[in-house]
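hey can u check if this looks right to u? its 358 residues, i copy pasted from the old doc so theres a chance i mangled smth
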Amino acid sequence: MLRVRPSVQTLQEYHPPLARRNGVRLDFNENTVGCSPRVLQALAQITADNLARYPERQPAEAVIAEHLGLAPEQVLLTNGVDEAIHLLCEAYLEPYDEVLVVAPTFSMYEIYAAATGARVLRVQAEADFTFPLHKIIRRITPATRVIAIASPNNPTGTVASGEQLLQIASAAPNAAVLVDEAYYEFHSETIVPEIATTANLFIARTFSKAYGLAGLRIGALCGPATQMRSLRRIASPYNVNAVALIALRAALEDQEYVAAYVSEILEQRERLASQLAELGIPYWPSQANFLLLKIGPLHREFVSALRQRGILVRDRSADPGCDGCVRITIGSKTQMNGLIIALKETWGELKLRRGVTA
C-alpha cells in the first residue's frame, strides 16, 4: 500500500480562514488598498506571447539585487516567502536534525521543517513577547541546522535587533539562520548588508505586504553566493510566473507609492494604539502593519461581533502564549475610521456581557 513519509502524516495542516469576500480585510496583514497603479498599467499590456513563453527570472533578480544592494548571485526570487522557507529546509535538513523557532511565530517554519523529518524545537518568547536571545543560544547544539526568526515577528510585531541576530549566527556556524523580513518596510531596519560577512545568514523578503502583490505570490531569498548556488539547484527554474515578474518590476519602479502607503499605515497604527489605550484594551507595541490585542475569554465573540459589522480580524488565541489574543491588520484612514466605530461598539457590548459598566 502506498504510504507517505511518517513526518508528513503527522504534520498539522495549515488552514487559512475562508469566506473573506465580504468585509474589510484586516485579518491577513495584506495591503488593504491594493498595488501601485503602475502595476495595473503593466498588467494591462500583457500579450499572448508573454503568457506563451516560459518566464525568465534572472533579469528581475538583477533588479531586486540592485534594489537591495546585493549581487545577482546573492538573490533568488521565490514563489512567496513560503517557497524560500521550503527551499532552505530542503537544502539543509536531514531527518532528526534540529530546528529552532521562536514561539509564537509564522507557522510555515515549523511545517516545512517537520516535513523533512527534522525535530522542531520551540523557544517561547518572553512574557511580554520580547525576543528570547539567551534562550535561543542555550538551545543551540551540534544538531541545530536551521534557525528561523521573523523580525518583525508575526503575530506579535516584536523585533530582534541586528546585534542579537548576528550573535545567533555566530553561535550556530553550522546552522542556516533565516531572518524573515516580510514586514521590513514598516520597520525600516534590515541586516541584508551583513550577508557579505556572515556565511550562514539568509534574509527573506516579500512583495505581498507593502507592495500589495499577495495574489501573485512573489518573494526573495537572499544569502551568501556560495550557499545560494546550492539553493538554485533545488529551485524550479520557472517558480515565479511571467505575470508576477512583470508586476514586480512595475511595483519596484513606484517607490513613491510604497512610501506613501507605509506612511499612512504607520500613522494609523499609532492612531489605533491610542484608541485601544483609551478603551482600556491591552495590546503589544508593534513594528509591523498590525497590532496584537489581549481580548481575553471572549475573543471568539469579539471576532464574530466585528465580522457582523463588516470587519474581518484574526483570532490568534491558539498560538503559543497568545490565549485570548486577536490580531488586527492596519488599514487606510477610511478603513480605520470604520474599525474604530465597530471596535467601540463591540467592546462596549463585551464589557456589558462581563458584567462591567461600559
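The longest strand covers residues 144-150.
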